[in-house]
Amino acid sequence: MGRTYYDISVTLSERTVLYEGDPAVCIREVSRIADGDAYNLSVLQFGSHTGTHADAPKHFVDGGAAVDALAPDYFLGKAKVFDMGGARSVEPEDLFRRPIEAGDRILFKTKNSPLMRGNRFTRDFTYISGPAAEYLADKKIRTVGIDYLSVERFGAEPLAHRAFLENGIVILEGLDLSDVPEGEYELIALPVKLCNGNGSPVRAVLVREE
């Protein structure tokens, strides 16, 4: 028996792909050993929904739970990866025969994943439709994830976000599932414990027992 670890996070840098309109990433060194300083130290500046990140209910729900109020088990535990192939969107009919139960953590692998390894945003990404989000909310899943920077179709009303976040379902976005086969895994994707945060970068890893 052994374990296989899949790092499903993207590297955060000034070249990381950003959702259109989001603030740029700036990583600036303010202390450098090479310049004679005693230590290396950097200042980090980026949006709360940059790279691989979590959306807390507060992101779209006024008075919703913030990042620092979320239980760790949103981000730790068994997860199911569903491979959606080249689908343009995730629809209810794609889910009817899937093994989805209350409390599940569901991650959708789509044709988006290679896009997360680039540095240019594309508007034509696979998303979760509003009806599919409602279906998952009715199933009372715990966490949902997708391999691009939004669960929502670009420019659309935030139906999926609201269906999830208004029902206490936490969202993981910006995953890179390129190398991950469909199946069941152990998820580790803890956010930074930001006071009153609406979202946070995460270091997301899947673990599979062999």
What is this structure's SSE topology?
Layout: E1 3-7, E2 26-31, E3 41-45, E4 53-55, E5 76-83, E6 89-90, E7 105-109, E8 127-128, H1 130-138, E9 143-146, H2 159-165, E10 170-173, E11 183-188, E12 199-201, E13 205-209
Helix pairs in contact: 1-2
Number-wise, the strands total 13
Secondary-structure element string: EEEEEEEEHEHEEEE
User: Structural class from helices and strands?
Assistant: mainly beta
Second rung of CATH, namely the architecture: 3-Layer(bba) Sandwich
Instruction: Walk across the major sheet and give the strand order.
Output: 1-13-11-5-7-9-10-4-12
**General shape:** globular
Question: Helical region count?
Answer: 2
CATH homologous superfamily grouping: Putative cyclase
Our Rg estimate from Cα atoms comes to 17 Å
First-last Cα distance: 5 Å
Q: What is the count of structural domains?
A: 1
Low-confidence stretches: none
Major sheet details: 9 strands, mixed
CATH class designation: Alpha Beta
Question: Would you kindly provide a written description of the structure presented here, covering whatever features stand out?
Answer:
- It is a single chain.
- 8% of the residues lie in helices and 28% in strands.
- The N and C termini lie close together (5 Å).
- Helix 1 (130-138) runs parallel beside helix 2 (159-165).
- The chain has one domain: Glucose Oxidase, domain 1 (3-Layer(bba) Sandwich).
- With 210 residues, it is mainly beta.
